[in-house]
Amino acid sequence: MLQIFCHQVLIFFNIISLTATQADISEFFDSHCESRCNFLEEHLNSKTKASFPTGCSTVCANLLIDDSTDISQDKMTLLFKNIKVLYGSLHVYRTNYTSGRFLAGLKVIECDSNGVFMWDENQNMIEIGMTSLTTCFCNFDVNYNSNMKWMNLPNLRNFSSINSNSTQRQIEMVIYSMPSNFCISIQEISNFIQNSNLYMGDLPKTFCPITSDFISGEKVCQFGIDATTLRNMTSNCVRVSGNITIEAGDEEFVYKLKSMKYLFGSLKIFNVNLTQVDFLSSLEYVVTLDNKPAIEMLSNHFVLNFTLPSIKRVRSTIQEWLYFALIEDELEAFIFKQPNVCSPFTDIYGRTVLYSTQIAGVHCEDKVPNVPSRNFPTSGRDNSAFSLHGCFQTIIFMIFVHFIC
Ligand SMILES: *[C@@H]1O[C@H](CO)[C@@H](O)[C@H](O)[C@H]1NC(C)=O
Ligand SMILES: *[C@@H]1O[C@H](CO)[C@@H](O)[C@H](O)[C@H]1NC(C)=O
Ligand SMILES: *[C@@H]1O[C@H](CO)[C@@H](O)[C@H](O)[C@H]1NC(C)=O
Ligand SMILES: *[C@@H]1O[C@H](CO)[C@@H](O)[C@H](O)[C@H]1NC(C)=O
Ligand SMILES: *[C@@H]1O[C@H](CO)[C@@H](O)[C@H](O)[C@H]1NC(C)=O
Ligand SMILES: *[C@@H]1O[C@H](CO)[C@@H](O)[C@H](O)[C@H]1NC(C)=O
Ligand SMILES: *[C@@H]1O[C@H](CO)[C@@H](O)[C@H](O)[C@H]1NC(C)=O
Protein backbone atom coordinates (compact mmCIF):
# COMPACT_ATOMS: atom_id res chain seq x y z
CA MET A 1 0.00 0.00 0.00
CA LEU A 2 2.68 2.44 1.10
CA GLN A 3 4.71 1.58 -1.97
CA ILE A 4 1.81 2.30 -4.27
CA PHE A 5 1.11 5.54 -2.47
CA CYS A 6 4.72 6.54 -2.77
CA HIS A 7 4.85 5.70 -6.43
CA GLN A 8 1.74 7.82 -7.05
CA VAL A 9 3.21 10.73 -5.12
CA LEU A 10 6.45 10.48 -7.05
CA ILE A 11 4.68 10.30 -10.39
CA PHE A 12 2.53 13.24 -9.36
CA PHE A 13 5.63 15.26 -8.54
CA ASN A 14 7.35 14.26 -11.71
CA ILE A 15 4.32 15.39 -13.69
CA ILE A 16 4.23 18.68 -11.80
CA SER A 17 7.88 19.19 -12.51
CA LEU A 18 7.34 18.44 -16.19
CA THR A 19 4.59 21.00 -16.55
CA ALA A 20 6.57 24.17 -16.05
CA THR A 21 4.75 27.21 -17.29
CA GLN A 22 4.90 27.99 -20.99
CA ALA A 23 6.67 31.30 -20.25
CA ASP A 24 9.47 29.54 -18.33
CA ILE A 25 9.91 27.04 -21.12
CA SER A 26 10.13 29.59 -23.90
CA GLU A 27 12.58 31.72 -21.93
CA PHE A 28 14.76 28.68 -21.29
CA PHE A 29 14.53 27.58 -24.92
CA ASP A 30 15.15 31.09 -26.28
CA SER A 31 18.32 31.44 -24.26
CA HIS A 32 19.71 28.11 -25.50
CA CYS A 33 18.49 27.43 -29.05
CA GLU A 34 17.69 29.11 -32.31
CA SER A 35 13.96 28.73 -32.83
CA ARG A 36 14.47 26.43 -35.83
CA CYS A 37 16.07 23.96 -33.37
CA ASN A 38 13.11 23.85 -31.00
CA PHE A 39 10.75 20.91 -30.87
CA LEU A 40 7.57 22.10 -29.17
CA GLU A 41 5.31 19.08 -29.57
CA GLU A 42 4.16 17.35 -26.43
CA HIS A 43 4.59 13.82 -27.83
CA LEU A 44 7.03 12.37 -30.28
CA ASN A 45 5.20 10.10 -32.74
CA SER A 46 4.85 9.41 -36.45
CA LYS A 47 2.68 12.53 -36.86
CA THR A 48 4.92 14.98 -34.99
CA LYS A 49 8.28 13.61 -36.03
CA ALA A 50 8.38 15.70 -39.20
CA SER A 51 8.80 18.79 -37.04
CA PHE A 52 11.76 17.34 -35.13
CA PRO A 53 14.82 19.47 -36.01
CA THR A 54 16.99 16.64 -37.35
CA GLY A 55 19.52 19.10 -38.77
CA CYS A 56 20.42 20.61 -35.38
CA SER A 57 23.13 19.30 -33.08
CA THR A 58 21.74 21.39 -30.21
CA VAL A 59 18.00 20.92 -29.72
CA CYS A 60 15.55 22.45 -27.24
CA ALA A 61 12.70 20.09 -26.40
CA ASN A 62 10.83 18.50 -23.58
CA LEU A 63 11.09 15.11 -25.20
CA LEU A 64 8.40 12.66 -24.23
CA ILE A 65 8.87 9.24 -25.77
CA ASP A 66 6.06 7.01 -24.57
CA ASP A 67 3.44 4.39 -25.48
CA SER A 68 2.11 6.69 -28.18
CA THR A 69 5.50 6.82 -29.88
CA ASP A 70 4.85 4.63 -32.92
CA ILE A 71 8.32 4.91 -34.47
CA SER A 72 10.66 1.96 -34.92
CA GLN A 73 13.96 1.77 -33.07
CA ASP A 74 15.84 2.19 -36.38
CA LYS A 75 13.83 5.27 -37.36
CA MET A 76 14.45 6.73 -33.91
CA THR A 77 18.19 6.25 -34.44
CA LEU A 78 17.94 8.19 -37.71
CA LEU A 79 15.86 10.93 -36.13
CA PHE A 80 18.45 11.53 -33.40
CA LYS A 81 21.57 10.93 -35.41
CA ASN A 82 22.79 14.55 -35.27
CA ILE A 83 21.74 15.55 -31.80
CA LYS A 84 24.58 16.18 -29.36
CA VAL A 85 23.07 18.57 -26.82
CA LEU A 86 19.50 18.62 -25.52
CA TYR A 87 18.09 21.50 -23.48
CA GLY A 88 14.78 20.72 -21.83
CA SER A 89 13.99 17.28 -20.48
CA LEU A 90 13.87 13.64 -21.49
CA HIS A 91 11.16 11.24 -20.39
CA VAL A 92 11.06 7.70 -21.80
CA TYR A 93 7.95 6.02 -20.49
CA ARG A 94 6.12 2.75 -21.23
CA THR A 95 7.86 2.14 -24.54
CA ASN A 96 8.63 -1.27 -26.06
CA TYR A 97 12.19 -0.37 -27.04
CA THR A 98 14.87 -2.81 -25.96
CA SER A 99 17.49 -0.10 -25.58
CA GLY A 100 17.86 3.66 -25.49
CA ARG A 101 20.76 3.41 -27.93
CA PHE A 102 18.85 5.57 -30.40
CA LEU A 103 20.15 8.42 -28.21
CA ALA A 104 23.72 7.07 -28.14
CA GLY A 105 25.05 10.21 -29.85
CA LEU A 106 23.72 12.59 -27.20
CA LYS A 107 26.52 14.01 -25.07
CA VAL A 108 24.82 16.59 -22.89
CA ILE A 109 21.37 17.02 -21.47
CA GLU A 110 20.60 20.11 -19.50
CA CYS A 111 17.26 20.81 -17.82
CA ASP A 112 15.83 24.00 -16.44
CA SER A 113 15.23 23.80 -12.72
CA ASN A 114 12.15 21.59 -13.08
CA GLY A 115 13.23 19.20 -15.83
CA VAL A 116 14.01 15.52 -15.41
CA PHE A 117 15.98 12.77 -17.05
CA MET A 118 13.54 9.94 -16.51
CA TRP A 119 13.18 6.35 -17.73
CA ASP A 120 10.26 4.41 -16.29
CA GLU A 121 8.04 1.39 -16.99
CA ASN A 122 9.84 0.35 -20.16
CA GLN A 123 9.14 -3.38 -19.90
CA ASN A 124 11.46 -4.58 -22.67
CA MET A 125 14.36 -2.27 -22.11
CA ILE A 126 17.66 -4.01 -21.26
CA GLU A 127 19.77 -0.87 -20.90
CA ILE A 128 19.63 2.89 -21.40
CA GLY A 129 22.83 2.63 -23.44
CA MET A 130 23.51 6.35 -23.92
CA THR A 131 27.19 5.61 -24.19
CA SER A 132 28.26 9.14 -25.23
CA LEU A 133 26.40 10.93 -22.46
CA THR A 134 28.89 12.84 -20.32
CA THR A 135 26.74 15.49 -18.67
CA CYS A 136 23.26 15.39 -17.17
CA PHE A 137 22.23 18.59 -15.41
CA CYS A 138 18.79 17.21 -14.53
CA ASN A 139 17.17 15.32 -11.69
CA PHE A 140 17.71 11.70 -12.56
CA ASP A 141 15.00 9.09 -12.17
CA VAL A 142 15.01 5.46 -13.33
CA ASN A 143 12.28 3.14 -12.07
CA TYR A 144 10.05 0.16 -12.88
CA ASN A 145 11.95 -1.01 -15.96
CA SER A 146 11.36 -4.67 -15.24
CA ASN A 147 13.95 -6.20 -17.57
CA MET A 148 16.74 -3.69 -17.34
CA LYS A 149 20.13 -5.24 -16.51
CA TRP A 150 22.14 -2.09 -16.02
CA MET A 151 22.08 1.52 -17.22
CA ASN A 152 25.24 1.40 -19.34
CA LEU A 153 26.10 5.07 -18.98
CA PRO A 154 29.88 4.58 -18.81
CA ASN A 155 30.81 8.17 -19.65
CA LEU A 156 28.32 10.07 -17.54
CA ARG A 157 30.57 11.95 -15.15
CA ASN A 158 29.20 15.46 -14.78
CA PHE A 159 25.99 16.74 -13.21
CA SER A 160 26.73 20.44 -13.60
CA SER A 161 25.74 22.93 -16.25
CA ILE A 162 28.05 23.20 -19.24
CA ASN A 163 27.35 26.95 -19.27
CA SER A 164 29.72 28.62 -16.89
CA ASN A 165 27.17 31.36 -16.09
CA SER A 166 24.51 28.93 -15.05
CA THR A 167 23.66 28.47 -11.39
CA GLN A 168 24.91 25.39 -9.66
CA ARG A 169 22.14 23.33 -8.12
CA GLN A 170 21.59 20.14 -6.20
CA ILE A 171 20.74 17.16 -8.41
CA GLU A 172 18.89 14.17 -7.02
CA MET A 173 19.35 10.68 -8.41
CA VAL A 174 16.77 8.01 -7.65
CA ILE A 175 16.85 4.50 -9.08
CA TYR A 176 14.22 2.23 -7.56
CA SER A 177 11.79 -0.65 -8.10
CA MET A 178 14.16 -2.23 -10.57
CA PRO A 179 14.56 -6.02 -11.01
CA SER A 180 16.70 -7.77 -8.41
CA ASN A 181 19.50 -8.50 -10.89
CA PHE A 182 19.78 -4.85 -11.93
CA CYS A 183 23.18 -3.42 -11.02
CA ILE A 184 25.26 -0.27 -11.13
CA SER A 185 28.79 -0.53 -12.46
CA ILE A 186 31.90 0.47 -10.55
CA GLN A 187 32.79 2.71 -13.51
CA GLU A 188 29.45 4.53 -13.30
CA ILE A 189 29.49 5.00 -9.56
CA SER A 190 33.15 6.10 -9.61
CA ASN A 191 32.13 8.87 -12.00
CA PHE A 192 28.97 9.84 -10.13
CA ILE A 193 30.50 10.09 -6.64
CA GLN A 194 32.91 12.82 -7.76
CA ASN A 195 30.05 15.33 -8.14
CA SER A 196 29.56 17.39 -5.00
CA ASN A 197 26.05 18.48 -6.05
CA LEU A 198 24.71 14.98 -6.71
CA TYR A 199 22.65 13.29 -4.02
CA MET A 200 22.15 9.60 -4.78
CA GLY A 201 19.06 8.97 -2.68
CA ASP A 202 18.10 5.54 -4.04
CA LEU A 203 20.51 3.25 -5.85
CA PRO A 204 20.41 -0.39 -6.93
CA LYS A 205 21.31 -2.93 -4.24
CA THR A 206 24.29 -4.42 -6.07
CA PHE A 207 27.38 -3.51 -8.06
CA CYS A 208 27.76 -5.15 -11.48
CA PRO A 209 30.38 -7.90 -11.74
CA ILE A 210 33.81 -6.36 -12.16
CA THR A 211 35.27 -7.09 -15.57
CA SER A 212 38.47 -5.08 -15.55
CA ASP A 213 41.52 -5.06 -13.26
CA PHE A 214 42.08 -1.35 -13.84
CA ILE A 215 39.86 1.73 -14.02
CA SER A 216 41.54 4.95 -15.18
CA GLY A 217 44.87 3.21 -14.59
CA GLU A 218 44.02 2.41 -10.97
CA LYS A 219 44.12 -1.16 -9.74
CA VAL A 220 40.77 -2.70 -8.86
CA CYS A 221 40.58 -5.47 -6.24
CA GLN A 222 37.65 -7.51 -5.06
CA PHE A 223 37.77 -8.31 -1.38
CA GLY A 224 35.92 -11.55 -0.77
CA ILE A 225 36.76 -12.81 -4.27
CA ASP A 226 40.44 -12.11 -5.04
CA ALA A 227 41.23 -12.42 -1.35
CA THR A 228 39.05 -13.23 1.61
CA THR A 229 41.30 -11.86 4.32
CA LEU A 230 43.60 -8.88 4.67
CA ARG A 231 46.47 -11.34 5.10
CA ASN A 232 46.41 -12.44 1.49
CA MET A 233 45.10 -9.29 -0.13
CA THR A 234 47.59 -7.58 -2.46
CA SER A 235 48.81 -4.25 -1.16
CA ASN A 236 48.54 -1.90 -4.17
CA CYS A 237 44.75 -1.83 -4.54
CA VAL A 238 43.40 1.64 -5.26
CA ARG A 239 39.74 0.80 -5.88
CA VAL A 240 38.45 -1.95 -3.64
CA SER A 241 35.05 -3.62 -3.76
CA GLY A 242 33.67 -5.82 -1.02
CA ASN A 243 32.92 -5.90 2.66
CA ILE A 244 36.25 -5.65 4.43
CA THR A 245 36.45 -6.88 8.01
CA ILE A 246 39.50 -6.19 10.12
CA GLU A 247 39.55 -8.20 13.30
CA ALA A 248 41.97 -9.62 15.86
CA GLY A 249 44.91 -11.11 14.00
CA ASP A 250 44.70 -8.72 11.03
CA GLU A 251 46.57 -5.89 12.77
CA GLU A 252 49.89 -6.45 11.02
CA PHE A 253 48.27 -6.32 7.56
CA VAL A 254 46.35 -3.07 7.80
CA TYR A 255 49.11 -1.29 5.88
CA LYS A 256 47.68 -2.97 2.77
CA LEU A 257 44.80 -0.49 2.80
CA LYS A 258 47.09 2.53 2.61
CA SER A 259 46.69 2.85 -1.17
CA MET A 260 42.87 2.47 -1.13
CA LYS A 261 41.23 5.60 -2.61
CA TYR A 262 37.79 4.16 -3.38
CA LEU A 263 35.82 1.66 -1.35
CA PHE A 264 32.73 0.10 -2.95
CA GLY A 265 31.18 -1.78 -0.08
CA SER A 266 31.90 -1.45 3.60
CA LEU A 267 34.62 -1.61 6.21
CA LYS A 268 34.26 -2.99 9.71
CA ILE A 269 37.03 -2.73 12.28
CA PHE A 270 36.30 -4.96 15.22
CA ASN A 271 38.12 -5.93 18.39
CA VAL A 272 41.64 -5.11 17.24
CA ASN A 273 44.50 -4.15 19.51
CA LEU A 274 45.77 -1.30 17.32
CA THR A 275 46.41 2.02 19.06
CA GLN A 276 45.59 4.13 16.03
CA VAL A 277 43.66 3.92 12.77
CA ASP A 278 45.88 5.88 10.41
CA PHE A 279 45.95 3.47 7.47
CA LEU A 280 42.89 4.95 5.70
CA SER A 281 45.10 7.87 4.70
CA SER A 282 44.29 7.68 0.96
CA LEU A 283 40.58 7.00 1.24
CA GLU A 284 38.61 9.60 -0.76
CA TYR A 285 35.29 8.01 -1.69
CA VAL A 286 33.12 5.36 -0.08
CA VAL A 287 29.98 3.96 -1.71
CA THR A 288 27.76 1.56 0.20
CA LEU A 289 24.62 0.03 -1.29
CA ASP A 290 23.66 -2.08 1.74
CA ASN A 291 21.50 -0.96 4.63
CA LYS A 292 24.38 -0.53 7.02
CA PRO A 293 27.05 2.05 7.86
CA ALA A 294 29.84 2.36 5.32
CA ILE A 295 32.46 2.26 8.05
CA GLU A 296 32.00 0.75 11.50
CA MET A 297 34.38 0.87 14.43
CA LEU A 298 33.30 -1.54 17.14
CA SER A 299 34.86 -2.52 20.41
CA ASN A 300 38.42 -1.46 19.69
CA HIS A 301 39.53 -0.62 23.20
CA PHE A 302 43.11 0.37 22.49
CA VAL A 303 42.47 2.78 19.62
CA LEU A 304 43.22 6.35 20.70
CA ASN A 305 42.84 8.10 17.39
CA PHE A 306 41.19 7.69 14.00
CA THR A 307 41.83 9.86 10.96
CA LEU A 308 40.46 10.14 7.42
CA PRO A 309 42.65 12.92 6.04
CA SER A 310 41.65 12.50 2.37
CA ILE A 311 37.93 11.77 2.56
CA LYS A 312 35.97 13.75 -0.04
CA ARG A 313 32.53 12.26 -0.39
CA VAL A 314 30.43 9.30 0.61
CA ARG A 315 27.26 7.61 -0.49
CA SER A 316 25.41 5.53 2.03
CA THR A 317 21.96 3.96 2.15
CA ILE A 318 21.46 5.06 5.75
CA GLN A 319 22.27 8.49 7.13
CA GLU A 320 24.88 7.18 9.59
CA TRP A 321 27.66 6.48 7.16
CA LEU A 322 30.33 6.26 9.88
CA TYR A 323 29.54 4.55 13.13
CA PHE A 324 31.51 4.19 16.35
CA ALA A 325 30.37 2.01 19.23
CA LEU A 326 31.97 0.79 22.42
CA ILE A 327 34.85 3.22 22.19
CA GLU A 328 37.05 4.75 24.88
CA ASP A 329 36.64 8.35 26.03
CA GLU A 330 40.02 9.32 24.58
CA LEU A 331 38.99 8.29 21.07
CA GLU A 332 35.63 10.00 21.41
CA ALA A 333 37.32 13.26 22.44
CA PHE A 334 39.79 12.89 19.59
CA ILE A 335 37.03 12.44 16.99
CA PHE A 336 35.15 15.53 18.12
CA LYS A 337 38.24 17.51 17.16
CA GLN A 338 38.53 15.98 13.69
CA PRO A 339 36.37 17.82 11.11
CA ASN A 340 37.28 15.18 8.52
CA VAL A 341 35.63 12.54 10.68
CA CYS A 342 32.97 14.49 12.57
CA SER A 343 31.53 16.96 10.02
CA PRO A 344 28.26 16.00 8.38
CA PHE A 345 27.92 15.93 4.60
CA THR A 346 25.19 18.32 3.53
CA ASP A 347 23.49 19.36 0.31
CA ILE A 348 25.36 22.09 -1.56
CA TYR A 349 23.32 24.82 0.16
CA GLY A 350 24.46 23.57 3.56
CA ARG A 351 20.88 23.20 4.73
CA THR A 352 20.15 19.50 4.84
CA VAL A 353 22.35 16.89 6.45
CA LEU A 354 22.70 13.97 4.05
CA TYR A 355 25.20 11.81 5.93
CA SER A 356 26.53 12.03 9.43
CA THR A 357 28.90 10.32 11.85
CA GLN A 358 27.42 8.60 14.86
CA ILE A 359 29.39 8.09 18.05
CA ALA A 360 27.93 6.07 20.89
CA GLY A 361 24.40 6.86 19.71
CA VAL A 362 24.94 10.60 19.14
CA HIS A 363 25.39 12.40 15.84
CA CYS A 364 28.70 14.17 15.84
CA GLU A 365 27.26 17.50 14.66
CA ASP A 366 24.86 17.52 17.63
CA LYS A 367 27.75 17.13 20.03
CA VAL A 368 29.94 19.69 18.25
CA PRO A 369 27.38 22.23 17.02
CA ASN A 370 29.78 24.51 15.17
CA VAL A 371 31.53 21.83 13.24
CA PRO A 372 31.67 22.97 9.60
CA SER A 373 29.66 20.97 7.11
CA ARG A 374 30.97 19.60 3.85
CA ASN A 375 29.73 19.66 0.24
CA PHE A 376 29.49 23.43 -0.07
CA PRO A 377 30.04 24.50 -3.66
CA THR A 378 33.71 25.08 -4.25
CA SER A 379 33.18 27.30 -7.29
CA GLY A 380 31.98 30.25 -5.25
CA ARG A 381 29.00 30.70 -7.55
CA ASP A 382 26.08 32.66 -6.24
CA ASN A 383 23.16 30.43 -5.32
CA SER A 384 20.84 33.09 -3.97
CA ALA A 385 18.75 33.29 -7.15
CA PHE A 386 18.05 29.62 -6.97
CA SER A 387 16.83 29.73 -3.40
CA LEU A 388 13.91 31.90 -4.53
CA HIS A 389 12.53 29.03 -6.54
CA GLY A 390 10.31 26.38 -5.11
CA CYS A 391 12.51 23.63 -6.41
CA PHE A 392 14.46 23.28 -3.21
CA GLN A 393 11.28 22.50 -1.30
CA THR A 394 10.43 19.94 -3.93
CA ILE A 395 13.76 18.23 -3.51
CA ILE A 396 13.31 18.12 0.26
CA PHE A 397 9.85 16.71 -0.20
CA MET A 398 11.14 14.13 -2.66
CA ILE A 399 13.86 13.13 -0.19
CA PHE A 400 11.21 12.84 2.50
CA VAL A 401 9.00 10.70 0.27
CA HIS A 402 11.94 8.46 -0.58
CA PHE A 403 12.76 8.04 3.09
CA ILE A 404 9.30 6.82 3.99
CA CYS A 405 9.11 4.62 0.89
C1 LIG B 1 4.07 -2.51 -27.28
O1 LIG B 1 3.77 -3.87 -27.36
C2 LIG B 1 2.44 -4.16 -27.00
C3 LIG B 1 2.28 -5.67 -27.00
O2 LIG B 1 2.88 -6.26 -28.11
C4 LIG B 1 1.49 -3.49 -28.01
O3 LIG B 1 0.16 -3.74 -27.64
C5 LIG B 1 1.76 -2.00 -27.98
O4 LIG B 1 0.98 -1.35 -28.95
C6 LIG B 1 3.22 -1.69 -28.23
N1 LIG B 1 3.45 -0.28 -28.00
C7 LIG B 1 4.09 0.50 -28.88
C8 LIG B 1 4.28 1.92 -28.48
O5 LIG B 1 4.54 0.08 -29.91
C1 LIG C 1 31.76 19.39 -14.87
O1 LIG C 1 31.82 20.35 -15.87
C2 LIG C 1 32.02 21.67 -15.38
C3 LIG C 1 31.87 22.63 -16.54
O2 LIG C 1 32.46 22.13 -17.70
C4 LIG C 1 33.37 21.74 -14.71
O3 LIG C 1 33.59 23.03 -14.19
C5 LIG C 1 33.39 20.72 -13.56
O4 LIG C 1 34.65 20.69 -12.96
C6 LIG C 1 33.02 19.33 -14.06
N1 LIG C 1 32.85 18.46 -12.91
C7 LIG C 1 33.37 17.23 -12.83
C8 LIG C 1 33.07 16.43 -11.60
O5 LIG C 1 34.05 16.74 -13.73
C1 LIG D 1 28.21 35.36 -18.63
O1 LIG D 1 27.82 36.51 -17.92
C2 LIG D 1 28.59 37.66 -18.24
C3 LIG D 1 28.19 38.80 -17.31
O2 LIG D 1 26.81 38.83 -17.10
C4 LIG D 1 28.37 38.01 -19.73
O3 LIG D 1 29.16 39.14 -20.08
C5 LIG D 1 28.79 36.81 -20.56
O4 LIG D 1 28.49 37.05 -21.91
C6 LIG D 1 28.04 35.55 -20.12
N1 LIG D 1 28.55 34.39 -20.83
C7 LIG D 1 27.76 33.48 -21.40
C8 LIG D 1 28.45 32.34 -22.07
O5 LIG D 1 26.55 33.55 -21.39
C1 LIG E 1 44.55 -16.87 1.47
O1 LIG E 1 44.81 -17.44 2.74
C2 LIG E 1 44.16 -18.67 2.97
C3 LIG E 1 44.49 -19.15 4.37
O2 LIG E 1 44.79 -18.12 5.20
C4 LIG E 1 44.60 -19.67 1.94
O3 LIG E 1 43.86 -20.87 2.12
C5 LIG E 1 44.35 -19.12 0.55
O4 LIG E 1 44.87 -20.01 -0.42
C6 LIG E 1 45.02 -17.78 0.38
N1 LIG E 1 44.69 -17.24 -0.93
C7 LIG E 1 45.58 -16.63 -1.69
C8 LIG E 1 45.07 -16.10 -3.00
O5 LIG E 1 46.75 -16.50 -1.39
C1 LIG F 1 28.45 -6.93 1.29
O1 LIG F 1 27.63 -7.75 2.11
C2 LIG F 1 26.25 -7.76 1.74
C3 LIG F 1 25.52 -8.57 2.77
O2 LIG F 1 25.63 -7.93 4.01
C4 LIG F 1 26.11 -8.32 0.37
O3 LIG F 1 24.76 -8.30 -0.01
C5 LIG F 1 26.92 -7.47 -0.60
O4 LIG F 1 26.87 -8.04 -1.88
C6 LIG F 1 28.37 -7.34 -0.16
N1 LIG F 1 28.99 -6.34 -0.97
C7 LIG F 1 30.01 -6.57 -1.78
C8 LIG F 1 30.50 -5.41 -2.58
O5 LIG F 1 30.55 -7.67 -1.85
C1 LIG G 1 47.79 -7.73 19.04
O1 LIG G 1 47.16 -8.94 18.62
C2 LIG G 1 48.01 -9.75 17.83
C3 LIG G 1 47.20 -10.94 17.37
O2 LIG G 1 45.86 -10.73 17.46
C4 LIG G 1 49.19 -10.22 18.63
O3 LIG G 1 50.05 -11.02 17.83
C5 LIG G 1 49.93 -9.00 19.13
O4 LIG G 1 50.99 -9.39 19.99
C6 LIG G 1 49.02 -8.07 19.87
N1 LIG G 1 49.72 -6.85 20.17
C7 LIG G 1 49.68 -6.31 21.38
C8 LIG G 1 50.48 -5.04 21.54
O5 LIG G 1 49.04 -6.79 22.30
C1 LIG H 1 47.66 8.66 17.35
O1 LIG H 1 48.06 7.82 18.40
C2 LIG H 1 49.37 7.30 18.27
C3 LIG H 1 49.61 6.28 19.35
O2 LIG H 1 49.20 6.79 20.59
C4 LIG H 1 50.36 8.43 18.25
O3 LIG H 1 51.67 7.93 18.05
C5 LIG H 1 50.02 9.40 17.13
O4 LIG H 1 50.85 10.52 17.16
C6 LIG H 1 48.58 9.86 17.26
N1 LIG H 1 48.23 10.60 16.06
C7 LIG H 1 47.53 11.73 16.10
C8 LIG H 1 47.19 12.35 14.77
O5 LIG H 1 47.18 12.25 17.14
Automatic annotation (TrEMBL):
Entry keyword set: Receptor, Signal
Keyword Transferase assigned: no
Entry keyword annotation includes Hydrolase: no
UniProt xrefs under Gene3D superfamilies: Receptor L-domain
Domain of life: Eukaryota
InterPro entries registered for this protein in UniProt: Rcpt_L-dom, Rcpt_L-dom_sf, SPS2_domain
UniProt domain Receptor L-domain: residue ranges: 55-135, 236-316
Endpoints of the signal sequence: 1-21
One Pfam family per UniProt: Recep_L_domain
Protein name listed in UniProt: Receptor L-domain domain-containing protein
Organism: Caenorhabditis elegans
Gene: irld-42
